[in-house]
Specification:
Shape: elongated
Order of helices and strands: HEEEEEEEEEEEEEEEEEEEEEEH
Structural class: mainly beta
Number of helices: 2
Oligomer: single chain
CATH architecture of the largest domain: 6 Propeller
Distance between the termini: 96 Å
CATH superfamily of the largest domain: TolB, C-terminal domain
Number of domains: 2
Largest sheet: 6 strands, antiparallel
Length: 334
């Protein structure tokens, strides 16, 4: 953990930050309050944008919802800030009002351009923080129990349309912040089809030389050209040794026969770097997507050619050679 900024240098004009939330573009929003008691004893809540690298803060709308009476950059007639913030999947920002004495409702919808608030429902429980699950369910946490029991920490489901709450359970502890982890959804494994030496059969390979073409087929479940989930050709390997792809890569066309309407790839590999040996009947292809996830490729058969079986010299030739050597030795003795 490292400290980023401090309130003396970065939060000039207000006293603190109550809640933060990133939108889908990576912009960090926050609610803060200036606490100018001579105008509002409950603090003057504002919507801010924070730089996550430096913690410097700027107002979303310096002149919204009131008049800057004291010239500090804050409107001096708005309500206290939100205790919790959360964006839904559509990019709408919601805020929980916490224990703000002047709140009209426990949940508000916030316009990120004007910071205008729309009250949703009424105030029934102190909601310290909120969180959207991936399925769109909005959860809210209270530091107190369902009926206000101090320190019992209740969890609610909240309807983001009207602010109505469904009590789930008391946790037995005081809750000031809330987040969650969505269940891991297992994505069915997609096997990407390949064709070694496309349009030819059998797929004859000389293990020692030549280029081997491999077609990688796109489909409804796999876009070979996708910038994130497509094939990263620099990671492709061929054969038992995983020889890297040669410099030639053909893309942007439907090479399948018959055509199926999906773009495919044709990649070339050096046979000498594949690790294929005489007698091998299959050659694997390996590689990853542009995001680094491994790709499961199908298999294809091969036939190695240009191979021969080494045979030692015949026994007869071996004996004949030794007999000649003996004759030479006899001549030397004379």
């Amino acid at each position: 953990m490292a400290l980023i900024g401090n309130d003396a240098d970065n939060f000039v004009g207000f006293q603190g930050i109550d809640a933060i939330a990133f939108d889908s573009s990576g912009t960090l929003f926050a609610t803060g309050y200036s606490g100018i008691e001579m105008f509002d004893p409950y603090g003057l809540g504002r919507l801010l944008i924070l730089d996550p690298a430096t913690a410097s803060a700027s107002l979303v709308n310096p002149i919204s919802m009131g008049t800057d009476i004291d010239g500090d950059g804050f409107a001096d007639s708005i309500t206290a800030g939100e205790a919790g913030l959360a964006f839904d999947a559509a990019g709408q920002l919601f805020g929980s009002r916490g224990n703000a004495i002047d709140r009209e409702a426990d949940l508000v919808r916030i316009d990120t351009l004007t910071e205008a608030r729309t009250a949703l429902g009424s105030k029934t429980n102190v909601i310290s923080d909120i969180w959207f699950a991936a399925d769109g369910t909005l959860y809210g946490a209270s530091p107190h129990g369902e009926n206000g029991e101090k320190g019992q920490g209740a969890l609610f489901k909240i309807n983001p349309e009207d602010g109505t709450k469904e009590f789930l359970f008391n946790t037995g502890i005081r809750i000031s912040g809330l987040t969650g982890q969505d269940p891991v959804v297992e994505v069915p494994e997609v096997v990407v089809d390949i064709d070694i030496k496309p349009w030819r059969f059998p797929n004859k390979i000389f293990p020692w030389y030549g280029l081997v073409s491999v077609a990688i087929f796109g489909s409804a479940d796999f876009d070979v050209d996708d910038r994130i989930y497509g094939v990263d050709t620099t990671t492709l390997g061929f054969g038992p040794a995983g020889g890297a792809a040669f410099r030639w890569v053909l893309r942007g066309y439907d090479f399948s026969q018959p055509h199926d309407g999906y773009n495919d790839l044709i990649v070339f590999f050096r046979a000498s770097r594949s690790g294929i040996k005489c007698g091998d009947t299959e050659a694997p292809v390996t590689g990853s997507t542009n995001s680094g996830d491994p790709i499961v490729f199908g298999t294809d058969s091969i036939v190695t050619v240009g191979c021969f079986k080494w045979r030692p010299p015949s026994r007869h030739r071996h004996r004949h050679r030794h007999r000649d050597d003996d004759d030479d030795d006899d001549d030397d003795d004379d």
